[in-house]
C-alpha cells in the first residue's frame, strides 16, 4: 500500500493531514522557528543546510522564510531569496544558480480538486513541481503556480502571477503573466 507521502511525491491525490506528513511539517516548523529568529549568519546557513534538500554555495535566504517540508527544495549557487518568501514544497521546487527572488515571492506547488468538491472538502490534494532556471530575476510579490517552469535568463515583473511555463531569455509580466519581449 502506498503511503500518502509516496502519493504526494508522485503527483497523485493525497491527504495532507496524514500523521507522517503532519509530523514532517511540524519538524520543519521547529527548524523554521530557529532559522527565522537567529541573527547569526553561520547558524542561519547551517539551519538552511539542515532544512533544505540542497543549498548552493554563496546562496542566502532572508527571514522570514516559510515552507512545508524543506526537503523538497533545491537552491543553486549564488541565489538570493529576499524577505518573506513562501515555498510550499509538497512537490519539488528547484531554483537554479544566480537567481534573485524579490520580497514576498510565493512558490505554490499544491493543487486542490477543481471538479470534485467532495474530494476537496474531504482534504484531498495533489502537487506539481516548480522549476526556475539559472540567471532568473523574479520581482517582488511574484506568485509561481504549481507545475510551472521558468527558463534561463528570464525576468518576471513584480506582482506577476505565473500560471504557465515561461521560456528562456524573456521579460514576462502581469496577472496572468505573459511574455512582453525577448531579452537578447
CATH topology: UDP N-Acetylglucosamine Acyltransferase, domain 1
What is the element string, with H for helices and E for strands? HEHHEEEEEEEEEEHEEEEEEEEE
Q: Could you list the spans in which at least 5 consecutive residues all have pLDDT below 50?
A: none
Q: What strand order characterises the main sheet?
A: 3-6-9-14-17-19-20
Percent helix, as a range, is 10-25%
The major pleated sheet works out as: 7 strands, mixed
Round the mean pLDDT to the nearest integer and report it.
97
Number of domains: 1
The end-to-end span amounts to: 51 Å
Q: Class by helix and strand content? A: alpha/beta
Write down the Rg.
16 Å
Total number of strands: 20
CATH architecture: 3 Solenoid
Q: How does the overall form come out from the CA principal axes? A: globular
The CATH class is identified as: Mainly Beta
The total count of helices amounts to 4
**In what range is the share of β-strand residues?**
25-35%
Supply the CATH superfamily name: Hexapeptide repeat proteins
Give a structural overview.
- The chain has 184 residues and is an alpha/beta fold.
- It has one domain (4-182): Hexapeptide repeat proteins (UDP N-Acetylglucosamine Acyltransferase, domain 1).
- The chain has helices spanning 4-9, 19-37, 41-51, 117-121, and strands at residues 14-15, 54-55, 60-61, 66-67, 73-75, 80-81, 86-88, 93-95, 100-101, 106-108, 110-111, 124-127, 130-132, 137-138, 143-145, 149-150, 155-156, 161-162, 170-173, 178-182.
- A 7-stranded mixed beta sheet has the order 3-6-9-14-17-19-20, with no helix packed on it. A 5-stranded parallel beta sheet has the order 2-5-8-13-16, covered by helices on one side. A 5-stranded parallel beta sheet has the order 4-7-10-15-18.
- A hairpin with a 4-residue loop joins β19 and β20.
- Keywords: Acyltransferase, Repeat, Transferase.
- Belongs to the transferase hexapeptide repeat family.
- InterPro entries: Hexapep, Hexapep_transf_CS, Hexapeptide_acetyltransf, Mac_dom, Trimer_LpxA-like_sf.
- One of its GO terms (cellular component) is cytosol.
